[in-house]
Amino acid sequence: MSLAENETATAPAALVPELRAICGEDGVLTDHSQRRTYENDGLAHHREVPGVVVLPTSAEQVAAVVRLCHERGVPFVPRGAGTGLSAGALPHAEGVLLVTSRMRRILEIDVANECAVVEPGVANLDITRAAAPHGYYYAPDPSSQQVCSVGGNVAENSGGAHCLKYGFTVNHVRGLDVVTPSGELVRLGGKAADAPGYDLIGAFVGSEGTLGVATRVVVNLTRTPEKTVTLLSAFESMDAGGGAVSSIIGEGVLPSAIEMMDALAIEAAEAAVACDYPAGAAAVLIVELDGPAAEVDAQVEQVEALCAAAGSFETRTASGAEERALVWKGRKSAFAAVGRISPAYIVQDGVVPRTALSEVLRRITELSADSGIRVANVFHAGDGNLHPLVLFDDTEPGAWDRAEEVSAKILDLCVEHGGSITGEHGVGVDKACKMPRMYGPDDLETFDLFRRSLDPEGTANPDKLLPTPRLCGEQPGVRRDVHPLVASGQATQF
Amino acid sequence: MAGSSRAPTPAVRAATPGDAVGDLVPAQVAEPSDTEELSLVLAEAAREGSTVAVRGGGTAQDWGPAPRALDLLVDTGKLSWIDHDPGDLVVEAGAGTPVAELYTHLAGKGQRLSYDPVRAGGTIGGAVATGASGPRRLLHGALRDLVIGMTVVRPDGVQARSGGRVVKNVAGYDLAKLHTGGYGTLGAIASVAFRLQPEPPALRLVEAEYGSRAEAERALAAVRESTVVPSAVEVSAGPDSALCLQVVVEGTHDGLRPRTEQAAQALGAHARVLGELPSQWGHRPSEGPLAWLSLPPAESVEAAARLGRRVRVGGCAPRGALHLSWPQGTPLEEIASVLEEARARPEWSVQLVRAHPEPVPAVDRWGRIPGLPLMRAVKDAFDPDHRFAPGRGTGGI
């Protein structure tokens, strides 16, 4: 039977009857307009219509689909909620896009073992919602947590604002069921920690879908802190704010989050959401402290004193949930707010050692002044994870190139100072060509050796994570407007 | 790659009986003084087809089976250096750096590596290669959670770095995870970067003994339900000792008072509060058979109570990460029978880490190892001729 013109017409077409036998009629999308809705993830600049889309409902279906791909040498790309910011779920035109959105059962909240067992399509925040009545939550909190999937978090080793104290996804995954690139279903770990042998769970988390698909995840649940306090402290310069960050860490305080915004980001946030941050601030610091009440109380006083000593002209303290949300409002709206003051921007995700923050921020200011391109800084200061937003007008000829040049120089600054090209967004397609800035040829070859050991045929999410000649002629990502999920109110980005 | 401009085999000497690993005396011992030399030595070994094992402080040479063959022993003693960025709470250290030296250095800056060593002596490379963590893994994570970067020399002599020196970094595969607890079967660790924690100003240890399993389980549940946020919760029991729970609380002097009271209340009326940790805290017995037992955490007390009649049991209760230790000379049949009893339970896994003499093949050291074929695939990629510590890894890898 020949397919209609707007239906899958390339390599995976031959697979369609078998895919339908595996996933059912409604579990396979071949119509072009349906497939097109999956053409990009959160990094919308990269687009590719997938050859065919499958929506499996069980691990067995995932395994059967992957096995079929393996046998026929057809590439597959796993996708969760599609909120990723590195085009890690960019589809393959001649491949199968394997979407886990129908696998969204929370299988178990096990309080005695302080863990949850979930399917990969479960939204991050839904674990916390299910655990909250028991006095627990799921600690990793990427900004898209309302919609992003646990399977995607596993693939990207997602962090969030609070990973300063609580770590990343990898520190919270105890067990994984994985469908390997050859289509085998393997259970690694479980409710018990310390599975014997090589730490395959540790290597799988953050592998960006290149080593297979997680079909069941056992995550740690963390006791809800007795008390949480959020401080907002305003400074007359970024340097002074950076100094406060250093002294807080230097004094042995471990906040759950330390966030920073510069004048341009504050201005944008004020215009967008009227967050009412202290007037005249060239930098604001948001410091969140949580834990046993007695410890938090002591630390709040300490942080207030350290901020004052570093030159803060105003510090506000919020303890109630509503009050705290108000403090976070400006920070959480910053990306969208910047989208309102500039037609387009590029967002970077570089990391620098905390002690290099002031120096790197100064150099970014110089870069901005020299190039005449505005850069707004909104970032996770506690762990040195910068999110510089490089602003430009995409209707102006050559503006993208100039912005991209500034953006690339910022990443170079991060690497020069001993940092990383990505702290939480992942490499995906977007930064694959930038990997050589951070790693030498031998390092990259070693990554590839590992990848091929588990995916010798190269069918699992090809052209992601490592540079390839095919990939590296392409342009890195540009954000033209507000993320569709942010626009629809489903997610915040910060 | 192998240095044409440098001496091909730096610092290699003939082995002495003191260099034996198990019953194997290597032909040669190399003592490279930097990563470059380590790389040259291993490239040469690759050309020669030599079997290789790595030794740090030599304190865990009897962990895991002895390698099946050994031509070249690499001693990391000269790879000893510390590069500490106190402001970043990050340290990088050469594989041969003594753990104690690193701790002393960090303590001088009010910081620490929070995994709690499980052996006296030993080096950073050895600690990472064997991968075991002590009590305070509970709050800050096991050793694998604290490693943020690693430089390894592959079996073919190629140097490879993964991760870096910043805490937040998702660029590339986290290959350090494979080497942490990999027993040196995938290459030689040259240096490791860790995230650190500030040393809290004050500490209390709260402990209590229990006459029954039910009592101890109630106490553990009470700790779990509290908001104490302990750094460690250890359970222990043995043929000659009572079922015991120990809770470590760390923080500010003011904050500690109510938290300690809460912990004591949870443990029961007979709880004792101490101001410091006992010496040898977290150390596993240095001789006699030793095994790791991992299980769903809710069953930790049950494991201690049940197996504690036959063998000394201890470990991190809320992680279900326990260890079993027997007196030197315990008959293998007894050990095998305890392993069997544990393996009869779903989701319990137990590995015999150390045994003298080498257990007869009839004793299954590892039990079921989920994912073993994947582990073999990784091993085959990095060490296709199985020259690196052959047989020492889990599952005989």
For the structure shown, list the relevant keywords.
A: alpha+beta, Uridine Diphospho-n-acetylenolpyruvylglucosamine Reductase, domain 3, Alpha-Beta Plaits, 4 domains, 34% helix, globular, B: alpha+beta, eight-stranded antiparallel beta sheet, five-stranded antiparallel beta sheet, 11 helices, disordered N terminus, FAD-linked_OxidoTrans_Type4 (chain A)
Structure report:
The complex is a heterodimer of chains A (494) and B (397). Chain A is globular, with a radius of gyration of 23 Å. Chain A has 4 domains: 11-99, Uridine Diphospho-n-acetylenolpyruvylglucosamine Reductase, domain 2 (2-Layer Sandwich); 106-224, Uridine Diphospho-n-acetylenolpyruvylglucosamine Reductase, domain 3 (2-Layer Sandwich); 227-333, 2-Layer Sandwich (Alpha-Beta Plaits), CATH 3.30.70; 337-473, 2-Layer Sandwich (Alpha-Beta Plaits), CATH 3.30.70.2740. Chain A is built from 17 helices and 18 strands. Chain A has a 7-stranded antiparallel β-sheet, sandwiched between helices. With 494 residues, chain A is an alpha+beta fold. The termini of chain A are far apart. Chain B has 3 domains: 1-199, Uridine Diphospho-n-acetylenolpyruvylglucosamine Reductase, domain 3; 202-274, ACT domain (Alpha-Beta Plaits, 2-Layer Sandwich), CATH 3.30.70.260; 290-354, 2-Layer Sandwich (Alpha-Beta Plaits), CATH 3.30.70. Chain B has 397 residues and is an alpha+beta fold. The longest helix of chain B is centred in the middle third of the chain and has 15 residues, at 253-267. In chain B, the strands form 4 sheets. An 8-stranded antiparallel β-sheet of chain B has the order 15-12-14-13-17-18-16-19. Chain B contains 11 helices and 19 strands. Chain B has helices at residues 35-48, 99-107, 124-130, 137-140, 143-146, 176-179, 213-225, 253-267, 300-307, 332-343, 372-382, and strands spanning 12-14, 28-30, 52-55, 72-75, 82-85, 90-94, 111-112, 147-153, 159-163, 188-195, 197-198, 202-210, 232-238, 241-251, 272-274, 290-294, 312-316, 321-325, 349-354. At the A-B interface, strand 9, helix 7, helix 8, helix 10 and helix 16 of A face strand 9, strand 11, helix 7, helix 8 and helix 11 of B.
